[in-house]
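Let's practice the habit of predicting before peeking. Look at the sequence and jot down your guess about where helices and strands might fall. Then scroll down.
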Amino acid sequence: MFGELSLFGGGARTASAVAREPSTLLVLDRQDLLSFLRKHPDAALDLLTTMGQRIRNADEMLRRRVARNINEEIEIRSTTVITHLHEKVDFLTEEVLARLPRAERR
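Done guessing? Here is the structure:
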């Protein structure tokens, strides 16, 4: 199933798909969906379950990307600091390196 957000919200589609092989597809407009869900409320619960899972998956993906971006930024900044320090001193001690910031996921 894809394109369901436009059925519920009435906005433009946010998804598209390309079939890799000959396929038979079902097209469902908003009024047909609402009529079906009124007649089959259990199907509405199934749809909500599926959409809830998709939201959880998207949330987890965003969390991972944000954490990765923070770690990459800290790595870049740490490298810059180390390069700058290296220019000022001949060596870096373990104590200095231990004080550099590290990102932790919470």
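How did you do? The mean pLDDT is 77.
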